[in-house]
Amino acid sequence: MGLTHEALAERLRSAREASGLTQEEAARQLGVSRPTLAQIEAGKRKVTGLELVRLSSLYSRAITDLLAVDFEPTAEPVLMRALTEARSDPKVRAAVSEALSLLRDILGLRDMLGTNDTDPGLPVYRLPRLTGRWQAVELGNRLAAEERQRLALGSSPVPDLGALLESQGALVLEMELPDAVSGFTFRPNGEVVLAVHLSQTPVRLRFSLAHEYCHALCDWSRDAFIEAKDGKAIVCRNTEGSELGEVRANAFAAAFLLPTDGVRRFLGDLGKGFPTRPIETVFSEGQTGPHPTAEGRLPPHSQEIGEMEVALAADYFGVSQECAVWRLFNLKLLGEGRKDRLLAWARGEAGPSAHPEDPSAGGPSGSRSPRENRGRPLRSARRMLLMLALEALRREEISAGKFHELAREAGVEESRAQTLAHLSEGQTT
Q1: Which of 10, 117, 172, 257 is 20 to 30 A from 161, alpha carbon to alpha carbon?
Q2: pLDDT by residue (tens digit) across 383-399?
């Protein structure tokens, strides 16, 4: 027996409630009156095909899910409930719906191709409950060092953090989010999904991704998918930076992107970071008397760290100049007074000629303004979707028509999709 319109009506009501929308909110975004939507949900009025398309998009559900034999009303709207801004902002809801649509197709293709079993997967660290800020900082620093060791990064910069996380099986979404939200983390069905605000500058986006990386590592149990289905999603808002979990994640991000040994080695290569009057006692095995000491003296001001060193370090490690200043200060390489002066410079408060975005001031290469950073939404997810679709076509798991449908969703022009499909078919002959 097929699905009755009464059963579909009940599913639509459950999907709306799972997404956190009231009837009035859903009706307004759908473009109908609340009584009309109430009639649809009560099974007293049939839903048209166009209305079903709009409702599935509004509730971030695939039409095939709503019509499936086994219907799970709360699988994906976890994020919609956590990201409350999506209720009142249609643009945010549309961006999240698009991201979830890509996510559904990626996970479906992964399952079809059996690649979920081969991804190494991010570990989940069991850490003590946070009780204070210093403990949160220590745990963040320790976790960063352990992850760098696990990934065999040494003290070198991380060239492409997104690619690194994808190599560990995580999905990275760059998308438009509310201004107050820097990113979010959630685990649908055990998968790791990290999202960052696309409109951030590249260096801030990188820091936000490292921040979300920390949440993915330590804010779930090993049965993470169970918690995710119960409504677990972590949304990071700029106003919550003093919360202990956010303190730990920020400490992790700074230590992961600017490792202590790497910073000291970098400054050492610049001839910086040494005491101005080094003293060393020369030990001799078997000698019982006083050991001789040697004292040196470096040129005045030779060890001072200024704007140039901060700009070079920020560029080398791929962080903002402000982040570099704070990291140098926390490593006791800057005093309080110099830290304040360099922060004023990094924030553009020391005069127009010293603004960090001014190329003549030694700003980090590759930096872009938030406006320039737009227009690249979900690029990593789209790239992954295209790669999986090509592999599925090569294995004849999907038809050419389905491939072209997925390629369009991945933002690929029809002519290029045809070329890729032709090349994929050539590999199978």
Answers
A1: 117
A2: 889 999 999 998 889 99
Q: Which domain CATH number covers 126?
A: 1.10.10.2910
- The DSSP symbol for 108 reads H
Query: Residue 16: left if φ>0, alpha if ψ -120 to 50, beta else—which one?
Result: alpha
Q: Which amino acid is at 396?
A: E
Residue 364, judged by CB atoms within 10 A of its CB (0-12, 13-18, 19+), counts as: buried
CB contact at 8 A, 303 and 275: yes
pTM attached to this predicted model: 0.74
| Whole-number Å distance between alpha carbons of 53 and 62 | 9
One-letter amino acid of 220: W
Q: Name every residue whose Cβ is closer than 8 Å to that of residue 137 and which is 6 or more positions away in sequence.
A: 247, 248, 251
> Last residue of a domain, which of 234, 257, 280?
257
Please report how many Cα atoms fall inside a 13 Å half-sphere around the Cα of residue 226, on the Cβ side.
Answer: 3
Q: Considering only CA atoms, which of 333, 339, 338 is closest in space to residue 268?
A: 333
The closest of 156, 151, 142 to 214, measured between CA atoms, is 142
Q: Where are the alpha helices (DSSP H) in 44-130?
A: 49-58, 63-67, 78-82, 85-88, 90-113
pLDDT tens column, 62-74: 677 777 766 655 5
Task: Convert the pLDDT of each residue in 176-230 to its tens digit.
Answer: 888 888 898 887 766 788 989 888 889 999 999 999 999 999 887 544 333 333 3
